[in-house]
User: Which sequence fits this backbone?
């Protein structure tokens, strides 16, 4: 099967787990004998030239939606290119589709590359597609001019006739608010690659409890709530713990908050680390404390942690909570500093058999979330989609002309809106 | 009963003959006819109403595609995958359509007389339907029927 993957980002040009999952899927599909080409954006930083990368076309334009200054950069034109339509990207896409003629398009995160236009072009050319939702991307794309555009969501729902793979019900529910897709969606979890059913490691035995956090240092991932939790532990007289914080983002703000709360002797900022080092770090930690918001679709980090015997502590309501059972594979707490501190305290006070919990978590991740366990479902969806249609190359000119017309009309609308 | 949606863009330029006549005479036969008048301004506000109307239609007929409203109607018809007829191409109040050869997005161009439309005939059908002649309504209805047939078959 010839598969064209479209993703806004692709390793080593990454922001989060979505694009890492994408690259793992590509590797797995290639290992299964499929011919896969990746179309992604021009990186905004120098990345090593890799002669083995092969068939990764880094040609799509992006308005750098993930830059730290993004809030200041926002404008209607920026939003137009990011969410609705980047006509140059449509041209590049149509060019690849016509020249290579894939059996199926496997779409990933389309934010920041004019995602609506990308899907509309694939649709207009008759290329079968499957859209992998690691986040509520269709709903995110249905925003323009300071708000949601429900009519756009309805139109996408009716006209975009491909299939969806979503990493959690949480994601489906978020999409569903604007773009009804449930009837065409299959829920498949995020996965972890390169893991074992059992691991050889030590577990908490009363020595200082090793807490870890790995992820972007941003409010929505709960990193500041985590610091407040740490402060609560100290306030309650509990000092037998350390906290390692791995990741980049609001580093200066986190550092300042650590100083403000007086938790610097326990909490350490480790900065960004390569994936292998993160995993090694987690393998040497006891609890993965991750008070992310319920908006977080299905974070990978808790799975990574569980795969190496580091027990996740997660909020009761979030995408990951759909998949791991409280007291069996993880610990769940109300998303408050106090509740998280109380849960950590139960471990320090030896009220929880952490080793048993960790072993069950490791096994569960291996059985249900190893990439080898999930990929057959993905592959079958791609095969089913590929049987439903075939690219109509005679539609190429029409597709690009439609995009040109849409682009001109949208730009006219924005220009007049700004006057 | 199939529906043809006749979108009359920039209606203030002159009264559209397609809409009023076909709406009156065409529905004697097998067609339901909806007519939408698009004003020259306020097109953006009208877009989603237009989309809703086009979704119900089997065929979209855009009168005056080279106007701002006509451009929006063309795009909406295309995005909804509807067969598109265009007419009144001599009325031109916006240069955008011509700059991207937008008539090629239509399935058929309907002209009232020879030479009215310099159509890209190598790609798009050109049909002469003179509304001053006898039998123009059944002729137009036949064109709509041909356009609608593949769509009906798919259903």
Assistant:
């Amino acid at each position: 099967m010839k598969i064209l993957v479209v993703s806004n980002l692709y390793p080593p040009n990454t922001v989060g787990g979505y694009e890492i999952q994408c690259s793992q899927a590509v590797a797995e599909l290639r290992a299964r004998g499929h011919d896969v080409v990746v179309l992604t954006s021009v990186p905004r930083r120098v990345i090593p030239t890799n002669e083995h990368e092969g068939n990764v076309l880094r040609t799509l334009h992006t308005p750098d939606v993930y830059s730290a200054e993004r809030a200041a950069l926002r404008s209607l034109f920026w939003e137009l290119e990011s969410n609705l339509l980047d006509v140059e990207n449509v041209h590049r896409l149509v060019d690849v589709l016509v020249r290579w003629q894939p059996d199926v398009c496997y779409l990933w995160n389309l934010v920041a590359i004019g995602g609506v236009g990308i899907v509309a072009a694939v649709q207009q050319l008759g290329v079968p597609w499957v859209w992998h939702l690691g986040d509520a991307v269709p709903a995110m794309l249905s925003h323009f001019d300071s708000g949601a555009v429900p009519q756009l969501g309805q139109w996408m729902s009716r006209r975009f006739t491909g299939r969806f793979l979503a990493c959690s019900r949480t994601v489906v529910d978020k999409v569903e608010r604007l773009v009804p897709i449930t009837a065409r969606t299959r829920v498949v979890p995020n996965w972890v690659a390169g893991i074992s059913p059992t691991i050889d490691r030590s577990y908490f035995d009363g020595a200082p409890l090793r807490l870890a956090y790995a992820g972007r240092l941003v409010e929505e991932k709960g990193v500041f709530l985590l610091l407040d939790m740490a402060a609560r532990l100290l306030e309650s007289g509990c000092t037998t713990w350390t906290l390692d914080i791995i990741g980049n983002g609001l580093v200066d703000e986190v550092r300042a908050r650590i100083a403000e709360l007086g938790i610097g002797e326990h909490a350490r900022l480790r900065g960004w680390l390569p994936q292998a080092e993160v995993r090694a770090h987690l393998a040497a930690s006891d609890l993965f404390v991750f008070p992310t918001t319920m908006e977080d679709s299905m974070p990978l980090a808790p799975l990574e942690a569980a795969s190496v015997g580091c027990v996740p502590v997660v909020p009761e309501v979030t995408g990951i909570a759909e998949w791991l059972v409280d007291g069996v594979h993880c610990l769940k707490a109300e998303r408050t500093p106090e509740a998280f501190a109380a849960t950590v305290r139960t471990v320090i006070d030896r009220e929880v058999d952490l080793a048993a919990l960790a072993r069950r978590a490791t096994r569960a991740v291996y059985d249900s979330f190893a990439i080898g366990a999930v990929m057959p479902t993905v592959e079958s969806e791609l095969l089913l989609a590929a049987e439903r249609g075939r690219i109509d190359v005679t539609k190429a000119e029409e597709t690009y002309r439609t995009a040109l017309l849409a682009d001109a009309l949208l730009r006219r609308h924005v220009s007049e809106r700004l006057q | 009963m199939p529906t043809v949606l006749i979108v009359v863009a920039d209606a203030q330029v002159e009264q559209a003959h397609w809409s009023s006549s076909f709406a009156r005479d065409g529905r004697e036969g097998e067609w339901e006819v909806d007519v939408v008048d698009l004003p020259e301004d306020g097109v953006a506000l009208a877009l989603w109403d237009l989309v809703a109307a086009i979704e119900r239609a089997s065929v979209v007929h855009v009168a005056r595609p080279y106007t701002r409203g006509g451009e929006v109607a063309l795009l909406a018809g295309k995005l909804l995958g509807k067969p598109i007829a265009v007419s009144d191409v001599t009325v031109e109040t916006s240069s955008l359509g011509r700059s991207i050869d937008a008539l090629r997005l239509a399935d058929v161009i309907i002209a009232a007389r020879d030479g009215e439309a310099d159509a890209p005939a190598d790609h798009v059908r050109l049909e002469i339907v003179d509304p001053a002649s006898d039998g123009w309504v059944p002729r137009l209805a036949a064109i709509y029927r041909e356009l609608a047939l593949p769509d009906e078959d798919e259903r």
